[in-house]
Amino acid sequence: MTTEFKPSRNEDEYFLKLDAERIERKRQQEEARASDAERRSHFMRCPKCGGHLETHTLQQIEVDTCPDCKGSWFDFGEVRAILAHYDKGLVFRLMDDVMVAFGKKPSPKVDL
User: Alpha helices, DSSP H only, in 5-112?
Assistant: First the structure.
């Protein structure tokens, strides 16, 4: 006579719960990995066209520029740094430098 092992209902529930927890942990790890990979693929990419950004230092402020769409992007705090040291001509000089970096004519000089 052989006796078969039959798991109790509590054992079944216990292992189902363990499996569900393991599956949930695996799902969260996969989501984190996918999110991290997506962030890495967007690093130094133009938010407008997806081109590779180049960093230029203009008037001691770093400006990220896109050679494809000619967009200019400031990182967090850079605009605030410009405004904190506001000089009526600084913004115009900075924008002129950006325009020259892209081969465009600077704006006409005006007295402020």
Answer: 9-42, 78-84, 90-101
The span from the CA of 81 to the CA of 63, in Å, is 12
* pTM of the predicted model as reported, rounded to 2 decimal places: 0.45
**Domain locations in the chain as residue ranges:** 7-43, 54-101
* pLDDT digit string (tens) for the chain, length 112 residues: 556 667 677 888 888 999 999 999 999 999 988 877 776 766 778 888 888 888 888 777 788 888 888 888 887 777 777 766 666 676 677 777 777 777 766 555 544 4
**DSSP secondary structure code for residue 56 in this structure:** E
User: CA quadruple 21, 26, 27, 29: dihedral positive or negative?
Assistant: positive
